């Protein structure tokens, strides 16, 4: 290999590795809907529930199969040897079938119960998706809050740096004391610390969101929407509660739980009733020492059909206990449904209170931020010309920073509470 060829190959290899490295480090940026869609397909808990759904489907197939007749084939072949050294073969062949014609309604009730269980598993998947949706929305909004906090805090740090530089010039001119510069430097250090804290919070919230998404990419980020809705008309609490009680999967799941338990009682009651089974057999055999093989099979072909009736007379209290336990299961299911409805109703009421309070807090925080921002602007201008003392200026800056943090927090908290409350009435989450 010539040197020219070698260096050409090396150059291509390095270029390829560089391209791969840049591709692997490319930032994956998703909006909220993309996050939700990805989580629904890839979240481990949701996929585990889907596997449970498949198991329920198989159990339903098995239950339906119990209403059908079975059919077994048998074949036995012998080699016979006697003292006279004669060796010949013999064999038996047959088909056996049985069919449960009546079992006190057990099979029908079992199929109905398995159908209900399949529906319940489907509703459980919806419940998990709903819970996952709210968790992802919360983390997504937390990241947006972190991002806006970082932007504002970067501006604060930049302003603090400018104030320090200006103060140093005034110190050189002898118009302010060294203590004033030291106070501004301390404030700058504190602003930088607040910025680092906000950046760390963003990293932690991104990790939490990636964990929910089961996303391994280390360069994941979210897209900031153009607007965040923090003010919206609040629907009537009673209407939202009634809608949720009719449509939410946890309520429908609880109702089907009661229905499933009722089918369980029907199955238990079937134990008191007789079972009627039909059976049949068809087969033949041959002995090698006799006439021809097919002649023997034809002559020996026989069929048998029968009915078997089993009547429970005394089952050592098995049926009695099964029935009592089935009734207990119904009562437990009804209590669980009542608890689900009560919990959901109170959760929605809490969500309603949260959305009303958060919007009021947002209004108050926005107003406070507006006035503190203007006051801080004036104080900053006064600082430039030296007509405000450092203590008053730093106090005003502290009030501005506090109002800024409260405003951002209130803004995204109001947006989150709106999404949660509307989600309970069936409105999809959308930023």
TrEMBL record:
Coiled-coil spans in chain: none
Keyword Transmembrane: yes
Domain of life of the organism encoding this protein: Bacteria
Secretion signal, residue range per the UniProt entry: 1-19
GO MF term set: efflux transmembrane transporter activity; porin activity
Name used for this protein in its record: Outer membrane protein
Keyword annotations of the record: Cell outer membrane, Membrane, Signal, Transmembrane, Transmembrane beta strand, Transport
Cellular component GO terms held in the UniProt record: cell outer membrane; efflux pump complex
PANTHER family in alphabetical order: OUTER MEMBRANE PROTEIN TOLC
UniProt source species: Mucilaginibacter xinganensis
Main location, first listed in the record: membrane
Lineage, top ranks: Bacteria, Pseudomonadati, Bacteroidota, Sphingobacteriia, Sphingobacteriales
A Pfam match: OEP
InterPro entries xref list: OMP_efflux, TolC-like
Family the UniProt entry places it in: Belongs to the outer membrane factor (OMF) (TC 1.B.17) family.
Localization in the cell: Cell outer membrane
């Amino acid at each position: 290999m010539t040197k020219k060829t070698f260096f050409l190959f090396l150059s291509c290899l390095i270029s390829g590795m560089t391209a791969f490295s840049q591709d692997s480090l490319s930032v994956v940026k998703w909006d909220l809907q993309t996050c939700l869609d990805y989580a629904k397909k890839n979240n481990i808990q949701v996929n585990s529930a889907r596997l449970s759904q498949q198991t329920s489907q198989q159990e339903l197939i098995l239950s339906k199969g119990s209403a059908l007749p079975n059919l077994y084939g048998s074949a036995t072949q012998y080699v016979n040897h006697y003292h006279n050294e004669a060796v010949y073969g013999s064999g038996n062949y047959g088909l056996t079938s049985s069919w449960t014609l009546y079992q006190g309604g057990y099979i029908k009730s079992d199929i109905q119960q398995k159908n209900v269980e399949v529906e319940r598993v489907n509703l459980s998947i919806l419940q998990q998706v709903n819970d996952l949706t709210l968790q992802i929305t919360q983390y997504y909004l937390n990241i947006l809050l972190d991002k806006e906090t970082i932007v504002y805090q970067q501006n604060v740090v930049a302003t603090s740096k400018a104030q320090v530089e200006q103060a140093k010039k005034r110190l050189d001119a002898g118009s302010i004391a060294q203590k004033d510069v030291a106070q501004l430097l301390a404030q700058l250090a504190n602003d930088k610390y607040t910025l680092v804290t906000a950046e760390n919070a963003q990293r932690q919230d991104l990790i939490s969101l990636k964990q929910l998404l089961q996303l391994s990419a280390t360069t994941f980020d979210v897209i900031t929407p153009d607007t965040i809705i923090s003010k919206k008309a609040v629907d009537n609490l009673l209407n939202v509660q009634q809608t949720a009680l009719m449509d939410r999967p946890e309520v429908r799941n609880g109702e089907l739980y009661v229905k499933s338990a009722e089918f369980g009682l029907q199955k238990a009651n079937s134990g008191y009733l007789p079972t009627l089974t039909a059976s049949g057999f068809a087969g033949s055999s041959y002995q090698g020492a006799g006439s021809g093989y097919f002649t023997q099979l034809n002559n020996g072909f026989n069929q048998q059909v029968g009915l078997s009736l089993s009547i429970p007379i005394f089952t050592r209290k098995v049926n009695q206990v099964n029935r009592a336990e089935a009734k207990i299961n119904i009562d437990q299911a009804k209590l669980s449904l009542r608890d689900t409805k009560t919990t959901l109703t109170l959760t929605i009421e809490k969500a309603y209170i949260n959305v009303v309070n958060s919007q009021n807090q947002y209004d108050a925080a926005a107003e406070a931020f507006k006035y503190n921002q203007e006051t801080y602007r004036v104080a900053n201008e006064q600082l430039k010309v030296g007509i405000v003392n450092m203590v008053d200026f730093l106090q005003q800056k502290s009030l501005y920073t506090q109002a800024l943090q409260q405003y951002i927090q209130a803004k995204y908290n109001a947006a989150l509470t709106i999404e949660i409350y509307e989600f309970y009435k069936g409105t999809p989450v959308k930023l």
